[in-house]
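User: Predict the full complex structure for these chains.
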Amino acid sequence: MLAMNFRGPFQIRADRNRPEPEIKHPMDAIVRVTRSLICGSDLHLYHGMVPDTRVGMTFGHEFTGVVEAVGSEVQKLKVGDHVLVPFNIACGTCPHCKQELYGNCHEANPEATAVGGFFGYAHTGGGYDGGQAEYVRVPYADVSPTILPEGMDLENAVLLTDVVPTGYQAAEQAGIQKGDTVVVFGAGPIGLMAARFAWFFGAGRVIVIDELDYRLEFARKFSFAEAYNFREMNDPVVFLKKATDYFGADVCIDAVGCEASGHAWQTISGKSLLMQAGTATAFHWAVNSVKKGGIVSIIGVYGPPWNLAPLGSIMNKGLTIRGNQASVKRLLPKLIDHVMSGRINPKEIITHRFPLEEIPDAYRMFSKKLDNIIKPLLIPSRANASFA
Amino acid sequence: MLMKNALEDRIAAGQDRIIAQRNMVRAAEIPGWGMDADPDNDPTYPMKHSNGADHERLDYEKAPQQPLDMEILHSIERPGVTRVFGTSTPPIGLSGAIRRFAYKYSEATATHWMTLILADRVDTIQGKLDDLVHGILPNPWIERGWRAEWKYNRAGFIRNTATTALLLTAGIMLLKRKNRRKRQLNQE
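Assistant: Here is the predicted structure of the two-chain assembly.
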């Protein structure tokens, strides 16, 4: 089958000779991928920043597909079902899953206890091949995969596997109260969603900070946010303090993670020398820009083992720091309703569509932010075989 | 050096609550505004529905064990492999040996993670050798996405390629000059 094949940092192959996945466990399903996305967090893998990313792996944790085969213990899904597959692999019965922490399943990732099991996210994410392929193995098929509601647009469905719930949870875990001023660092797909959803929680003001003007312009339109370029500031923290009456924002959301720009020492120590797990620039700005007693929500991805963090400011300001991988299954019913009722049309963020064969170009363009790209979609040639 | 007339110099202070109040009057125009607002959304609620499962953790219903028919490295912070696991790319060759060493250390240690990064780099070289053995030549034009770069960022691509070529040439020239001097000294 055709699948993405990682050959080392900045080098991937659209490989036609990958073996098709097999049922390895009675609760597995095999899914023929109909749509797949490249996530901003895939770029951390592509850039060689996530430990235990092995040559030969297939990435991709955002995909929809048609069930082609099921294991002997799968009861809810059947061959032919068209499903959206949440990026979390979750058993549904461990203590964490029982408490709806589906992103923190205890039975999905042997390699790292700090990380849940995810499709196509290195062995640090469990060693599963991902959905940037024609076919993919889906463990615990009865737990998270969700049959597409009738009439749901396929591009909206694939965005519900990660981007929409992740952006939503960023706003949800920020504990936004009516009238709050919310600052979102990063105008990538997750930041745009987080800013958009901040209004759902009653925000009074939403401010987005980024360095790319085309994304800031998009944030103004899609997220109804005020949007500012930190390259036009001497110090984003001073700007945000002044913009919030010198108190600080009620809530700051770090939707950037480990590849943030804007601070030379962070860039050198984090991205160039890998002395820390990428750059924590956005997190620093968030901690320093939020009010005393405020909440910082981390949704941007940071890798192990550590980052330089302003612990003194966190303690002295009495901050609440919250973060987690989105618990997609928990959020899906509410988010499907938001999408189906037209309150939000997530597919507006998909700016580029590529055949799976052109995946190296898609990664390069996304990595270098070429052609005003925001979210690239991949379409396998076998995708259209069985649905209209 | 500090920018003159930076954005923070141009905005007015004291506007935050005024803007927020104005937005809230207009809020009805924003689809979905306030519909998920929850005053009880305290800092622990929505991420975890505490139901005591944490304290019954030894008795939970476990799925059948996926057959362990390949080498799976697992964190020493857990007793064994999980009930399911990924079967992509088992450890192989020198990079595999390095990974086995890394997994002797916990996730709390730099030895674990930095050794895995080292293994990843060795794996990249292994992958290139493996490609050559199988008659696959590197194709950076396609595999590194240079084709897209040429199409959408031609000036930048040419500039970067020229800079790299220049640095490489300068490096080679320096090495050559050093070697020539060494030879001259030896002859003297």
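Chain B touches chain A through 96 residues (CB under 8 Å).
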